[in-house]
Specification:
heterodimer; A: 326 residues; mainly alpha; 13 helices; globular; B: 100 residues; 83% helix
């Protein structure tokens, strides 16, 4: 019986890996960008399944929500803006590589150089991977030993917000910079006025409170179970994207300065807490034992709000335009 | 083998059969509307059967409720998605397939 279960698990894993490779190939090699995005979303979902098989539910949640869901939505939004500008140019683009395809393809020699460089890079990575010891416990033991000092009982949250708080702080910085860059480049496109229809509107009306609830739960659960700021923030962003898609004009309803405050909130609270810790005699981002749990929760609440609004702002694709109707 | 296990196995197999039929329909049906029909109808019932089969094995009422909730949410989402795809296809002027 055990043997049969093991064989089934092995077969499932093999199928998973082969599916991932095939999807990755279709994402990269397809000439049709829309199809590539659909394959990319499917890739993200299968990847989330792979993370579940590797017993990393935190990463699986993040992969499904951010990798498949929101990145997919961002790609589709980018594609629709590309299409708006290049509809005429793309209208006659053939699906197969024929004479018009050649003009965008780099020269054969250039491609050979790229292929050689990629092969070299892949070889180096493979060599590095093979040179690792087969049984590497990593820092699991140290994390387990120090978990009681972190203020939370989920080891992933302990690492992200306490032991390696720097990494998460810098990630928040990257997200913030991404919005700053997007806002500097271009104003948000004027939404095409297409009424969402009663079905989508009522679906969003039913779903968005549930998404808010799920985001709150993920945030709260993060201290002791899989979940946390990034997962909660991306669910929040998903709710915002759905609202935007169903025609809720948030640019008109949300004045500019609260939006900017919430965008910077996660990074700001994170840095502020770090600095306060330095003022009272600790090191940067070193939390006193008694308050560690509360401080982590405070940072996560701020980070969740920021991540949600940041991802939604990226989906908008530019700085909100001042409402002319005032 | 207990009765509940047998019921679960029957429900899971029936669910799998619906998924298979839905996939076949997706691959073999002639246009976007009929494919949507195959996908949403079959997957909704298929997922319902799978969820029901697993709910029988659930250890707590909460777990059972979660399975029911998952099924209901997927019903809602797939019905909405199917509607949106069909509406988009109609607006682009793709004519529904008719038997010649």
């Amino acid at each position: 019986m055990d043997g049969a279960v093991n064989a089934a698990a092995w077969a499932f894993d093999a199928l998973l890996v082969l599916t991932l490779l095939w999807l990755a190939w279709r994402v990269l090699m397809g000439p049709d960008l829309f199809k590539s995005i659909v394959f990319f979303i499917a890739f993200g979902l299968v990847m989330a399944l792979a993370w579940v098989r590797l017993r990393a539910p935190d990463v699986a949640l993040a992969e499904a929500a951010i990798g498949a869901g929101l990145t997919g939505a961002l790609f589709l939004a980018a594609l629709s803006r590309l299409a708006a500008g290049e509809r005429i140019a793309n209208a006659k683009r053939p699906v197969e590589n024929s004479d018009t395809g050649k003009s965008t393809r780099p020269h054969r020699g250039v491609r050979m150089v790229f292929i050689a460089m990629s092969a070299l890079f892949f070889g180096g990575l493979a060599a590095a991977l093979l040179s690792l010891p087969a049984e590497a416990p990593g820092l699991t033991i140290q994390v387990a030993e120090n978990l009681s000092t972190s203020g939370v009982s989920n080891p992933v949250t302990a690492v992200l917000l306490n032991f390696r708080g720097y990494d998460t702080l810098l990630e928040m910085g990257v997200l913030f910079l991404a919005v700053v860059a997007a806002w500097s480049l271009t104003p948000a496109p004027k939404e095409p006025v297409s009424p969402p229809g009663i079905v989508l509107a009522s679906f969003v009306r039913v779903l968005s409170p549930m998404l808010l609830l799920a985001a709150g739960y993920l945030l709260w659960a993060g201290t002791h179970a899989p979940g946390g700021a990034f997962q909660a923030g991306s669910v929040l962003a998903a709710a915002a994207v759905l609202l935007l898609l169903s025609g809720k004009d948030m640019k008109a309803n949300w004045p500019e300065w609260p939006l900017r405050v919430v965008l910077g909130l996660g990074l700001g609270v994170f840095i502020a807490i770090g600095l306060v810790m330095m003022l009272i005699g600790h090191r940067f981002l070193e939390y006193p034992l008694d308050y560690a749990g509360d401080l982590i929760l405070l940072i996560e609440v701020a980070a969740t709000l920021s991540i949600g609004v940041t991802l939604a702002a990226l989906f908008l694709g530019g700085r909100p335009q001042r409402d002319e109707r005032k | 083998m207990m009765l509940s296990q047998m019921i679960t196995i029957v429900l899971l197999l029936a669910g799998a059969a619906f998924f298979l039929a839905g996939t076949l329909g997706l691959l073999r049906f002639p246009d976007v509307y009929t494919r949507l029909h195959a996908l949403t109808k079959a997957d909704n019932v298929g997922l319902g059967l799978v969820a029901a089969g697993l709910a029988i094995q659930a250890e707590t009422w909460a777990a059972m409720g979660k399975m029911a909730l998952i099924w209901l949410l997927v019903l809602l989402a797939s019905a909405t998605g199917a509607h949106l795809v069909a509406r988009g296809a109609l607006r682009r002027g793709i004519p529904p397939w008719t038997a010649r």
